[in-house]
Design brief:
Distance between the termini: 47 Å
Strand order of the largest sheet: 3-2-1-4-5
Structural class: alpha/beta
Order of helices and strands: EEHEHHEEHHHH
Strand content: 15-25%
Shape: globular
Oligomer: single chain
Helix content: 40-55%
Largest sheet: 5 strands, mixed
CATH superfamily: Ribonuclease H-like superfamily/Ribonuclease H
Radius of gyration: 17 Å
CATH architecture: 2-Layer Sandwich
Number of helices: 7
Length: 196
Amino acid sequence: MLLSHFTENLTEAGCDEAGRGCLAGPVFAAAVILPRDFRDEILTDSKQLSEKQRDRLRSIIEINAIAWAVASLDAETIDEINILSASILAMHLAVGRLKFEPQLLLIDGNRFKPFPGIPHQCIVKGDEKYLSIAAASVLAKTHRDDFMKQLHEKHPIYGWKNNKGYPSKNHREMIAEHGITPYHRKTFRMLPSILK
């Protein structure tokens, strides 16, 4: 069972991102403030859940959270500022959209830039340890997956409704055959070798 809170009495927002390792599409981030008594037996890191479980949890989280917000940055911005900076900026944008200001940010991973006026705690594998970070991972992942399914309608050959922009074998083959779209991240190391 994941832990509900990192501190005794601070209002905490869990933060996580989705789509860092993709060749195409935006990076999404979410920030979630859960009630102190929130519990869910299956909520954990979104990568360990099925799509059906994630979709069910998304509605539970969005209904029960004290506050939640999602933000994204497109491939062009990722190419301009790099994926780590884009992931952190997307988290900042999500935190800034919360309807209540938290007193502490719980960040999944070990890298973050301070958000003005709110202290933070980085937690490696935080989405497997704290409910609020796991909730943020589910929202970031499900909102991004929905966006990639919409993009799939514009460029169906790349199979984004299935691979969500990740470097699957089919996705790489289609890039080699058809080139890239405006949604592909041009600075990602894998792309030049595929295009050759």
